[in-house]
Write a structure and sequence with these properties.
Structural class: alpha/beta
Low-confidence stretches: 1-8
CATH architecture: 3-Layer(aba) Sandwich
Strand content: 15-25%
CATH class: Alpha Beta
Helix content: 25-40%
CATH superfamily: Vaccinia Virus protein VP39
Oligomer: single chain
CATH topology: Rossmann fold
Largest sheet: 7 strands, mixed
Number of strands: 7
């Protein structure tokens, strides 16, 4: 997809209200979390705070956008024994300067913002310790790509096979890979394809998070859907 890449910050702040959604993602990731974590594209720190709650030894937070200032402020208010370091940069520039060699690198709604995603995954592979994991959560299905995706700097929405293929060619093993949030396809399609909206309102996020996510989560515990609004993937070096 040919367009200028702009890493958008404040347009995505509404997602900080998706508490249940983030808890659901973390539950899926938890068995693969190590002790030396890197979160790439940490935003204002809503998911970072949950990672701190998992009590790792070290957490590196990487955020290149204008949200970096708020990230530092928000995380500094948390009383924790976890060693936290901040990098106002992109991962490819910060990776060689990390204070700890990571065993877990996390991308939640970030990889789609990176034009050269294969190059990014290659750098992740080189940076991880052997046996370490890369935990990825991305938007799915180019048929859902609309004005909002373009506005916030998404280069693509993925298919499961596409993401797995890119990871395997680099050398990763696929530990877990699944479509996520089947129900979310329908309101997303209506709002962003049919109605051509380019905004994500915190009120809508809160409502979906409160009422739809708990029900959808229960369904997806027992049913495996062939598609979903997102993809959750765990890669092992």
């Amino acid at each position: 997809m040919s367009k200028k890449h702009v890493y958008v910050g404040k347009d995505l702040e509404a997602m900080s209200f998706a508490v249940n959604y983030h808890k659901w993602i973390l539950e899926e990731f938890r068995p693969f979390l190590g002790k030396r974590l890197v979160e790439v594209g940490a935003g204002t720190g809503s998911f970072s705070e949950m990672l701190i709650g998992e009590k790792p030894e070290h957490l590196a937070l990487i955020e290149p956008s204008e949200m970096f200032e708020f990230l530092e402020q928000n995380i500094a208010q948390i009383e924790t024994s976890v060693a936290v370091n901040y990098y106002n940069s992109i991962f490819s520039e910060a990776a060689d300067g990390l204070r700890e060699k990571p065993d877990t690198i996390i991308y939640v709604n970030v990889l789609e913002h990176i034009e050269d995603d294969r190059g990014e995954l290659q750098k992740v592979y080189e940076t991880l310790e052997t046996g370490g994991h890369c935990l990825i959560f991305v938007p799915a299905l180019m048929s859902l790509y609309g004005a909002f995706d373009e506005k916030v700097g998404h280069f693509r929405r993925y298919t499961k096979n596409e993401l797995e293929e890119k990871a395997r060619t680099i050398g990763f093993q696929i530990e877990k890979s699944k479509y996520f949030d089947f129900v979310g396809i329908f309101p997303w399609y209506i709002k962003y394809k049919l109605l051509k909206s380019d905004s994500l309102e915190s009120g809508a996020v809160t409502a979906y998070d409160k009422f739809a996510v708990p029900v959808t989560k229960q369904f997806e515990r027992f049913l495996k859907f062939p598609v979903g609004k997102n993809i959750l993937t765990v890669l092992k070096k």
